[in-house]
């Protein structure tokens, strides 16, 4: 029996000042004056169109992702949140995160985002080394990054994440350690520490920059930084996510627990459990901002609808749940996938045999070895 899990709302804002050469997100260089008001109208129309899919359910988290949401003026964010709260039931403990590029502080005042209801920020810092930032094509230097974080703290934001990347072109282990040290000094509640990947269809994939650390060197950076973060009170709870106690990102946790999310905005993806028809729907919106602006609120704005078939569900579930150190409960697997635990018995036994997973009572958890080979463990659950 499929039971609808907690529901989140993802809102995609698709513009950036400049496209970074490593980035494959749906982000477009915004030229001239951006149509913020028209885009908010489109978001509200899009939400209205999808509302029947989530009637009666309450929303636990909202995440403005991008692109660069901090390009949006606070009154545009405010207008959207007011419209959303009059259409959806917001949970009392609602977490509202806004992604922020430190090079955009002139676009919105942090006080105003707070007044609009945003209670968590996520800064794309990447590194504190100005050479690294330049090679990554970032629009800010380390001084601006530190200033942006301080401005947010002065405005009363005590719950914020810093995004760092490692294994950067020409980065040494000492440089990666220094980045983590400087991030910790800013006292964020959460740090995301991503290994730079060369994504297809990016400038870096076409022309890889010189000096990308070898696999073993990248592994050393990960291990060393993880230990530094643990010493400073940031526990790893997912492959790339570290948090102070009780400060995990509720929005991302809901993805990793195979929760539901409504995806609003250009190219946004959603995943929804439809209890009445006992199915799981994946829906995504058309990608290009101009196309989305023209079609939002009508069926033509839907880029695609796909039902997740039963035989695909174990893999999709593991793709998320096995990223978490906490693993998952077998009862949770059954509720979120509508399958019996016997559907994964063979794969589980194999993973346990390899020493990748352990099962205690109802809970399945990745071992240290399993965490090193996350992709191989997940691949076990791909059924053809
Ligand atoms: C949507 S961006 C965050 C906000 C804003 N766009 C920015 O970059 O400042 C999400 C994060 O994903 C990470 N990221 C993006 N592309 C990546 C890649 N190719 N490899 C690893 N991490 C990447 C970066 O740390 C980035 O901050
Ligand atoms: S600012 Fe963020 S979303 Fe925009 S191109 Fe750079 S990494 Fe991608």
From TrEMBL:
Its cofactor is [4Fe-4S] cluster. It holds the Pfam family Radical_SAM. It comes from the Bacteria. Residues 1-238 form the Radical SAM core domain. One of its GO terms (molecular function) is 4 iron, 4 sulfur cluster binding. One of its GO terms (cellular component) is cytoplasm. Probably acts as a heme chaperone, transferring heme to an unknown acceptor. Binds one molecule of heme per monomer, possibly covalently. Binds 1 [4Fe-4S] cluster. The cluster is coordinated with 3 cysteines and an exchangeable S-adenosyl-L-methionine. GO terms for biological process: porphyrin-containing compound biosynthetic process. InterPro entries: Aldolase_TIM, Coproporphyrinogen-III_oxidase, Elp3/MiaA/NifB-like_rSAM, HemN_C, HemW-like, rSAM, rSAM_sf. The keyword S-adenosyl-L-methionine applies. Signal peptide: none annotated. It comes from Luteimonas cucumeris. SMART domains: Elp3. It is found in: Cytoplasm. This is Heme chaperone HemW. The keyword Nuclease does not apply. Keywords: 4Fe-4S, Chaperone, Cytoplasm, Heme, Iron, Iron-sulfur, Metal-binding, S-adenosyl-L-methionine. Belongs to the anaerobic coproporphyrinogen-III oxidase family. HemW subfamily. Its main location: cytoplasm.
């Amino acid at each position: 029996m499929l039971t609808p899990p907690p529901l989140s709302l993802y809102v995609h804002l698709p513009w950036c000042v400049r496209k970074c050469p490593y980035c494959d997100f749906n982000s477009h260089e915004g030229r001239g004056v951006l149509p913020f008001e028209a885009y908010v109208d489109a978001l509200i129309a899009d939400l209205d169109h999808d509302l029947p899919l989530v009637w009666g359910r309450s929303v636990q988290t909202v995440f403005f992702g991008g692109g660069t949401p901090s390009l949006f003026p606070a009154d545009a964010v405010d207008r959207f949140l007011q419209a959303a709260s009059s259409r959806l039931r917001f949970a009392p403990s609602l977490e509202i995160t806004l992604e922020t590029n430190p090079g955009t502080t002139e676009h919105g005042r942090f006080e105003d985002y707070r007044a609009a209801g945003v209670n968590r920020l996520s800064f794309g810092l990447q590194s504190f080394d100005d050479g690294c930032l330049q090679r990554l094509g970032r629009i800010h230097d380390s001084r601006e990054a530190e200033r942006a974080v301080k401005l947010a703290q002065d405005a009363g934001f005590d719950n914020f994440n810093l995004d760092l990347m490692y294994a950067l072109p020409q980065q040494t282990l000492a440089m990666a350690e220094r980045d983590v040290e400087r991030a910790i000094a800013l006292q964020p509640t959460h740090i995301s520490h991503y290994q730079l990947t060369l994504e297809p269809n990016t400038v870096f994939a076409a022309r890889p920059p010189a000096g990308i650390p070898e696999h073993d060197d990248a592994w050393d950076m990960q291990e060393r930084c993880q230990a530094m973060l643990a010493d400073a009170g940031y526990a790893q709870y997912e492959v790339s996510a570290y948090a102070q106690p009780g400060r995990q990102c509720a929005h991302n946790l809901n993805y990793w627990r195979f929760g539901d999310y409504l995806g609003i905005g250009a190219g946004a993806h959603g995943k929804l459990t439809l209890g009445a028809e006992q199915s799981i729907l994946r829906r995504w919106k058309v990608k290009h901002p101009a196309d989305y602006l023209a079609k939002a609120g009508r069926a033509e704005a839907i880029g695609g609808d796909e039902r997740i078939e039963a035989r695909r569900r174990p893999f999709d579930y593991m793709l998320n749940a096995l990223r978490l150190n906490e693993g998952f409960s077998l009862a949770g697997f059954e509720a979120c996938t509508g399958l019996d635990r016997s559907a994964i018995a063979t794969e589980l036994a194999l993973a346990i045999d390899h020493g990748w997973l352990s099962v205690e009572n109802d809970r399945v958890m990745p071992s240290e070895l399993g965490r090193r080979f996350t992709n191989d463990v997940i691949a076990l659950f791909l059924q053809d």
